[in-house]
Amino acid sequence: MSHLVVRDLTPQRFDQAFPLAKAAAPRLTLAAWRRYLKDLGAGDGVLAVENQRGVLLGLAVYRRRGDLASGCCLDIDPVVVFDLVGGSAIAACLAEALERRAEELGCGSLHTHLLAERDEGPLHRAFAAQGHRADATRFCKQLGGLHH
Fold first, then answer.
1. What global pTM score does this model have?
2. 86-110 pLDDT, tens per residue?
3. What is the rounded CA–CA span in Å between residue 11 and residue 57?
4. Residue 54: C-alpha distances to residues 7, 49, 50 (Å)
């Protein structure tokens, strides 16, 4: 994993992360991605995993919010890794970085939303290895037309 670097993704690189975001939401447009990121508040951000050449291989958008059980939680959605080039190492690197970020922000828990169709993929294995457990299912229903 020494060839992987985790950084806060700056607004100047948000467009560069769009292909990874689109992997999580295939109908996503660049304009909708920009609006989504523009709504990030204080304590929110984007962590990215990149190789030594600066190629983005994984990302996670996180939001700090109140939580009834833990006081403060880091809500992570989406979280995506490029699985064709060492997805397991990328996912493990991202999972560890998100846990550190939650601790830095004083959060008592992490709530991570992973794509259901990849329930045995590297992201699920990496988060399970870090001690995360599935404790609920997230349902989603699209209403009306697409807002992208």
1. 0.81
2. 688 999 999 999 999 998 998 888 8
3. 17
4. 10, 9, 5
